[in-house]
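Risk register update: the risk of archive-format incompatibility is retired. Evidence:
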Amino acid sequence: MEKVIATLPGYARSFCMRSIHHRGTEEAPGLVLALDAHEGAACTGVALRVAEDQEAAVLDYLRERELISSAYIEEVLPLELMDGRRVEAVTYVVDPDHVQYCGGEPLETQAQIIARAVGGRGPNTEYLYNTVAHLVELGIGDEDLEWLVGRVREIAG
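Archived output:
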């Protein structure tokens, strides 16, 4: 498997999906990240390439995991790899018409939700902290997420 830092133009990493099972409940939804279309935006993350003989199994796994609630749409989108290559990649982006979509919430509102929500997989704070820690390990900065970490820690105590 090949793992490369890549940028997806036209999308932003955003807490734009209500979580009613994993990081919140129907009564008190949490928030999870998704790739949300925004003109002029670009999201840096990790692109993975698997061996051809594993491609079908990996796609089956991803489709089962990502398409279970119809909140995400599978698209093949252009990526710019850190080493200069440009590739097309299977990508899962948020469906802005889905009932759980909540894009455009102010960061303060996101912080208030994340600081308090808990779901079947644990506190929403844990999801935020783990995500940002992983991005830091990869050398990927995200000002909004870093601000959220600080603000959520203030709120959560």
